[in-house]
Specification:
With 319 residues, the protein is an all-alpha fold. Helices cover 62% and strands 0% of the residues. The protein has one domain: Hypothetical protein af1432 (Orthogonal Bundle). The radius of gyration is 20 Å and the shape is flat.
Length: 319
């Protein structure tokens, strides 16, 4: 029995009956199994070594081109989601490796300039654009001809955002961990940027969720563990869930739509619009075309760009 088989046996002995087992993982194409790593561990490693993952370090989370070194990027957001999700999975005896792989891959399809860039591509693409479905396209098609990830990881990536939910409990964990991470770290960044102060946050959120960044995250995690332990579901205790959703609404109204945050958005969305229209009429200049749909190829190219690359390219093309 090799190391991987020992790990698979350990999963069957230790994990919850509701956990996804790596020995049952399926891939679309045959891929020789590793003697050391489980299938979900291999998926995690494939994602970490991908070019799309490395590009996340230069993609906006909320604040575009911040001057302070401590603002979150899409990469640091991803790492925070993975940490939160792994903590929950471990506490519930679910598959931590699957959870981590989904978390690390969930935002690979994000555009430059954060959700502002996503809105532009959604308006320009005839079929629309959403980062979760594009993240799936990245791992299935665009990254090295497809990473051939397991069905469980691809499902969790595609369904981490929106109304639909992943088919595994591990995928459902990532969806909640994503919200926990961005709500809390965006408060931290908004205070750093002078968009919010501590006193702006309604007292009701402090009373339920906690006053500090760490306390809020801990209380949300504990509320999920208490509500989900021993059950075939992932949920948060109602009082904490309602407070989290209301805090998210508060953030949309006071941070994400705040003129101090959105003030420069038109500059960057204008850049993406210019680039989209340019490559639509000059598709031969796209470095690599993988479809017969020019809109699809333009969207693939633009969505892959970092903030810096898109800005520099716009400068070269338009002066």
């Amino acid at each position: 029995m090799n190391t991987r088989e020992n790990l698979e046996l350990r999963e069957r002995e230790i994990l919850s009956p509701f956990a996804a087992l790596s020995c049952n993982a399926k891939r679309e194409r045959f891929d020789e199994k590793c003697p050391l790593r489980t299938e979900f561990q291999r998926d995690r490693d494939k994602i970490i070594h991908s070019k799309a993952f490395r590009r996340l370090k230069h993609k906006t989370q909320v604040f575009i081109s911040p001057e302070d070194d401590h603002f979150r990027t899409r990469l640091t957001h991803t790492l925070e989601v993975a940490q939160i999700a792994r903590t929950i999975a471990r506490a519930l005896a679910l598959n931590e490796d699957l959870t981590e792989a989904i978390a690390l891959g969930h935002d690979l399809g994000h555009t430059p300039f954060g959700h502002s860039g996503e809105e532009v591509l959604n308006q320009l693409m005839p079929s629309g654009f959403h980062h979760s479905t594009h993240s799936l396209r990245v791992v299935e098609t665009l990254e090295r001809g497809g990473l051939n990830l397991t069905a469980e990881v691809r499902d969790g990536i595609a369904l981490h955002s929106g109304e639909a939910r992943a088919n595994t409990l591990e995928g459902k964990i990532v969806s909640l961990a994503d919200r926990i991470a961005y709500i809390n770290h965006d408060i931290d960044d908004a205070i750093r940027a002078g968009v919010l102060t501590e006193v702006d946050i309604p007292r009701e959120f402090y009373e339920v969720l906690g006053r500090s960044h760490g306390a809020r995250i801990n209380n949300m995690i504990m509320a999920i563990v208490r509500e989900s332990d021993g059950k075939n579901l992932i949920a948060m205790e109602p009082q904490t869930r309602d407070a989290m959703l209301n805090l998210r609404k508060f953030m949309f109204e006071n941070v994400y739509k705040n003129p101090k945050v959105d003030g420069r958005k038109e500059n960057y969305t204008g850049m993406l619009t210019d680039l989209y229209n340019y490559y639509l009429t000059n598709p031969s200049e796209i470095p690599e075309r993988l479809s017969v749909d020019v809109h699809r190829d333009v969207c693939d190219y633009l969505a892959s760009m970092t903030d810096l690359y898109a800005t520099d390219l716009h400068g070269k093309l338009f002066g």
